[in-house]
Amino acid sequence: MARPRTVDREYILDVAEGVAAATGAAGLSFGAVAAAAGMSKASVQSAFGTRESLIEAMLDRWLAQETARFTAKAGESPSLKVRVLAHIANTSEESEVSMQRAATLLACLAGSDSQVGAVARWYTTRVGDLSVRNDEERRLRLAFLAAEGAFFMRYVVGYSMCTERWSDIFEDLTRMAGEPERKQDRQGRRKQL
């Protein structure tokens, strides 16, 4: 009796990412992935069960890869400032393909509660609950939110932005997040510490 053929989930995830990048969220189906992978639709479906499970696996893999890059920049127990600066750097340096993949996965999640919690937890580990105690934390919160806004404008909404403009924005955000805290001197002028 022949052994059942095993399905390589990582290979299917690679193919699914390619399908999603080429066709967008609407084109991501078991049939499309199976055709691109050169296997039966049943084989793809047996590996993931549902389209939502496939999307969850794709998102989990992207989050793990992004988190590994982030940790390499920020270290194991970074301060808020280091976390925000590492996040800005990660977002700025991420490849177009990876950013489009992330945007497609987020679009696939729209209207689905299945992985929204994972994304919310990812944000929480990155910046906490967005509460602030001082001006520096307020500036860091704004820089983080601006980086996310730039990502959404360019990759989710499709706002046209050249590479030079993208780099310029992230240089500004890096400066904004990296500014040292300032205090006022006795005459009410702000001075750098």
Automatic annotation (TrEMBL):
Gene3D superfamilies: Tetracycline Repressor, domain 2. SUPFAM superfamilies: Homeodomain-like. InterPro entries: Homeodomain-like_sf, HTH_TetR, TetR_CgmR_C. Residues 6-66 form the HTH tetR-type domain. Keywords: DNA-binding, Transcription, Transcription regulation. Residues 29-48 bind DNA. It holds the Pfam family TetR_N. The keyword Protein biosynthesis does not apply. Signal peptide: none annotated. This is TetR family transcriptional regulator. It comes from Aquincola tertiaricarbonis.
